[in-house]
Amino acid sequence: MLPLNLSPMATMFIFSLLIMIKTDALKKLFPVTCFYLHFLLLQGMFLVFDLDKFYDAPDSYILAGCTGTFPVTVYGSFLPRHVFYRFHALCAYLRCIFVALCVLFLWPSFDVILADQVSVVIPLMKLKKSMKVVFYCHFPDLLLAHHTTVLRRLYRKPIDFVEEITTGMADMILVNSKFTASTFANTFKRLHAQGIRPAVLYPAVNVDQFDEPHSYKLNFLSINRFERKKNIELAVSAFAKLHNLEEHALQSQKLNEATLTIAGGYDSRLRENVEYLDELKHLAEREGVSSRISFVTSCSTAERNKLLSQCLCVIYTPKDEHFGIVPLEAMAAHKPVIACNSGGPVETVKDAETGFLCDPTPEDFSLAMAKLIQDPQMASRMGGEARKHVAELFSTKTFGQHLNQYLMSITGSKED
Questions:
Q1: Can you tell me the distance from the alpha carbon of 338 to that of 331, in angstroms, rounded to the nearest whole number?
Q2: Is the four-CA dihedral 226, 232, 235, 240 of positive or negative sign?
Q3: Which secondary-structure segment (H or E) carries 233?
Q4: Residue 252 confidence class, pLDDT cut points 50, 70, 90
Q5: Cys staple from 175: which of 150, 180, 225, 325, with CB 3.0 to 4.6 Å?
Q6: Are residues 298 and 363 in the same domain?
Q7: Which UniProt keywords apply (predicted)?
Q8: What are phi and psi of 35, to 5 degrees?
């Protein structure tokens, strides 16, 4: 067993699972023995959480959930993630198969396997007839892969086929939004024709990590990875457009105080990250607003929370985002959100109440930004409503309750 530091989102996801799952057999703290199998491909590890040990020392696990450190067993870390920076999907499948075999032969049977993102393990887990498999699909992987050349299409065809077939073998499929559920139906047409309908389980945020802000600046904050699909140039162009909004007659003093901060994950080893950051800086120079835009790369959780506390609102620019955790974090931090009127934000942001849902154009985004510059108290009121909204529907407690209900239904157990 080895301690592994997890992100706040991952920690709370797992911690919610720990505190909500029960077991009738042991007659202890939980009604279902559950084993959580989570593949962190980006970390290059596979984690095995032994919940049986939870029953012997629950206090230590609760403390681990609060601090973000869990005892885990790691399998497959010696296997490559790629072959000369190619065949990432194939390597991921092989690594997942390896850890699934380790679970089958080295661990006892479990009532429920909760598999995340990589469906190839499902038929292996189903070899033990007594185990139920719940698959949490964030988004169909075949839609995230490139099919731009003949060779790529030939390489992906069997992988895409296996993804659909194995996904359909799960006893229950969960997705992260109604948008993803719709995409799932349109992508996996064979499964849809068979009557397979995924249930929606929204991701959650730990609202308690965000304190109520007591002061703010006229600063707009964008938080995203530095990837082109995140459409961050929309934030830059919208910010530049503020100077041309005659109909709102923005006071020049307020406008001069307005700034934009662009923060997010950045890896200098990734060509796209490096190129896209340069593109954004050049765009800011062309638009004449480079002196009022700050770029923050790979900020820590504490730095992110400080930026959230001090900003006026958060600008969320991805179009057709599968879900989008940033709007939830912003609203949990008492900040309104300006986002595209598509994808996950349509389900999380209440238009004109906790933020604004806009067409993905600089003009539409800048109009929403101008409203908040003119009336900062509106941002404060919206932020208060946003916090209540997230605490009610997207907290880790709510997530745990919904997950518990799904697990009870799949195992046929009754909640106490």
A1: 11
A2: positive
A3: helix 233-241
A4: low
A5: 180
A6: yes
A7: Glycosyltransferase, Membrane, Transferase, Transmembrane, Transmembrane helix
A8: -115, 125
